[in-house]
Amino acid sequence: MAAISDLDRVSSIVLRFMRAPILVLLATYTVGISGMALMPGQVTETGTTNMNLFHAFYFFTYTATTTGFGEIPVPFSEAQRLWATICLYFGVIAWLYAIGSMIKLAQHPELLTAIAERRFARRVQSISESFFIICGFGDTGSLLARGLSENYCAAVVIDSDTERIKALNMRDYRVKMAGLCADSSVPKHLLEAGVKRSNCAALVALTSSEDTNLKIAVMARSLNPSVQIICRSTNQHNREHLETLGGVGIVDPYEIFSRQLRTAIRMPMLYTWEEWLVGVPDIYLEQPVCPPHGKWILCGYGRMGSALYERFAERKIPTMIVDPDNQPADPDLPLVVGRAGISTLKAAGISDSAGVVAGTDSDEGNLGILLAARRLNPDAFLVVRQNRHENELAFTGADANLIMQPSLITARRILLMLTAPLMLNLREYLRYEGQHRVRETVDKTRMISNGERHHLWTERLGGATCAVSWLRSRGMRPTLGNAMGCPTDRSRKLSVLPLVLKRAEILIMLPGEEIELLADDEILFCGTEAAHRHFTTNLNNSYTLHYLHLGEDEPRGLIAKWLLRATQ
Amino acid sequence: MNLEKVIFGFFIVLALTLNVAFVVGEIANSGHHSLWMLFAALLVSLFTTGLKIGDRSQIGAIFLSTSLVANLQLILAITYWAVGEGGMDLPPSQDRMVTIISLASGALVANVVSVLMLVTDTLMSRR
């Protein structure tokens, strides 16, 4: 439907623009050709010869376009030459006018957007695998697109900034991502992005404005009641509104970070393991990040400060807040009023505090707090918030123990929700189970990793077409351990670790190797890239899986099968 | 060691060697090319096709198609021999012999591809 209305728009703009030049050309040609045919030509013995209409048209065509072959087929009379001169001037002027209009049309902004929208809609229609819609291609959007491309997931992008879409087209993604420059809260553009298509797996609203994100979520929900929607929102009011829509995943980087930091204080191993798995650079399983127990000073009581305060208070971690605004609504708040600096940090008791969080929304302010805190307490654990990606160099040079980037946290969380949602369940499980289980899992990961980087992926045993269902339909029962065998030697194992197995609605955490595989299982794994490739082959090649399961090759040809059956 | 692999490899390589045995020699000289050799090459090629039927894997499909190509070329070659003047009783004329050997050489290429695939497949599995 969208494509037809766009086609109408394109043709109507072209017609509106080209109507006058076409009429002018037509009139010039008519007058010129008829005049040429009527002008008396050279006098021969048979009388005056006139040009016929075809010759007149031929002559006018090459004259008006300034080609000028000369006087064809016979030399002209003086009268014809006079008319030819007039033809030349008017014909050339008419053509210049027409060409000028065409060039103007080609630069017409409305036509260009109409064409861009049609091309975008067509590219979306040609996507056959499942894809994601990313609304907003800022810091977070581009990080998310990069992550999706590393996982070979297709996505389409809408952003209202032309420069961002140009930047998107310059990226070297593994999967081509279509981009459209448009306001993504307009339903028409969401339709063009394919929100109603059956292979649209999720829509992610990541624009810089909270209200736009809300609007996008509302529009998308009413267009497609079943699509998964993920929305960045740090605003309590909007969040309530989003929750009523149903099926909307809300991502609040401050909330996520508060929980992460709390986990890091309570279970540093779990925190380090999670961060290592999602590919955070400069983090090693051998050296867990250990924020200390003790009193924490929170500089800034905005979205981040309040989230941290609440999470810390739940676990009885003592805090002290430094903020320029007095909070009359909450008189019990442990607050030092004033801008965070040497005097206020001293007043908050920095000398005996374990950690400081510089969490205001100003990057230079946060760096200042960092310097002051480091001078007052060299042993404190310093967490700093980096708001803008472009300030990266200043922050990596600074002496912070942990840098918190809202855009990175948002992008990583959304990537996890889209490509490995079971990880979130596992995290809850491990947090509940406690240190012992965490240590066990981390040790297992370390044992198979060999110092190589791991990544997370979700393996969906593709129903009836996969090797597991083939083997099962022939009475065999391959186990998870079979599928994890090395395809060249079944006594060795691939470097993969199954984390969660999802069977219908049941979740099996850290499944053992003896568990039988069913055709519709969904399994979250971590492992090296090479192991991932081998593992996928094991699951797709029934001969390999047969060998891994039984230790012998399945006969391939019909004759060999028949012989085998006859000899048994 | 897998008995199926032994038989499979044996016939694939035999199809190639018989094909070579028929094709070598001067192309137009009917004294250099034996009809019996062509007949044997065709029979082994047909039998190899039989062995390849039933494999569900990708490489199995390509194996089968190369085999079908070899069969087609060899059948064309032997038919062309049979329908010539004098049939199979007399050696074919020079022109006819050239065409027959060209067709058999095509089959030879298909057989070479088949053997190459057999070798790569075996090396890849590393068992």
Description of the molecule:
The complex is a heterodimer of chains A (568) and B (127). Chain A has 568 residues and is α/β, with parallel strands linked by helices. Chain A folds into four domains: 2-106, Helix Hairpins (Orthogonal Bundle); 127-251, NAD(P)-binding Rossmann-like Domain (Rossmann fold, 3-Layer(aba) Sandwich), CATH 3.40.50; 283-416, 3-Layer(aba) Sandwich (Rossmann fold); 452-563, Regulator of K+ conductance, C-terminal domain (Alpha-Beta Plaits, 2-Layer Sandwich), CATH 3.30.70.1450. Chain A has 23 helices and 20 strands. Chain A has a six-stranded parallel beta sheet with strand order 5-4-3-6-7-8, with helices on both faces. Chain A has a six-stranded parallel beta sheet with strand order 11-10-9-12-13-14, with helices on both faces. Chain A has a four-stranded antiparallel beta sheet with strand order 15-20-18-19, with helices on both faces. In chain A, helix 1 runs antiparallel to helix 3, helix 10 (253-266) runs parallel beside helix 12 and helix 10 (253-266) packs across helix 16. Chain A is flat and about 120 Å long. Chain A starts with a helix and ends with a helix. The model of chain A has no long low-confidence stretch (mean pLDDT 87). Chain B has one domain (3-125). With 127 residues, chain B is mainly α. The chains are: A alpha/beta (568), B mainly alpha (127). The A-B interface holds A 487-489, 541-543, 552-553, 555-561 and B 2, 4-5, 7-8, 50-57, 60, 125-127.
